[in-house]
Predict the 3D structure of the following.
Amino acid sequence: MAESVDVGGVTVWPGWLDAGAQAAMVEDIRAVAAAAPFFTPETPRGQKMSVRMTAAGRYGWVSDRKGYRYEPRHPSGVDWPPIPASVLAVWRAVSGVDRDPQCCLVNWYGEGAKMGLHQDRDEADLDMPVVSISLGDEALFRVGGVERGGPTRSIWLRSGDVAVMGGAARLAHHGIDRLRFGSSTLLPRGGRINLTLRVVDQRPAAQLEEACLRV
Ligand code: MD6
Ligand code: FE
């Protein structure tokens, strides 16, 4: 396994997944999308995002005119499918925490898609990291600080790379400036899939109490 790289406090593991593992994970995501089809979210101000989204797990993250939030069901009303075992295994290997993710957000980037600088802050327990898995075309990932407007650093995320955003960087601003469309052959029609894994809820009270008794 290659060494990790620190980008503004985000730990990136280049090539965490080999080609076979990437192809298998794409098949797992196809099955997720068959149960919970991709949709195009809108910002609360009514602008269509350029990425298409779906999710797996107990919660999916959705955005529409009512705002950003986690929802227990796909917009069609069906439950989100379970998080694939291949994806869970990555979380368990790199997250460093004892809870499993409750949401695997699936972002699908076509040609020209990007994601503006944002913070991931809709989760209740910010001691839990966000883990991201990149599949397909290379994407320019920008990481800034917790405050908006400071200096930023960028790194090209490639297919199979895994990034962990935790600790002091948990609330860092970050986004995808652009894709090198067609740079990977993983997805037959090009594009990029990014998976982000999150714990959404606070830890159950019984476990919190137990953790307090232990210290
Ligand atoms: C992306 N990633 O790579 C967008 N969020 O397409 C994210 O927004 C992200 O990579 C939280 C933690 C890691 C990430
Ligand atoms: Fe994010």
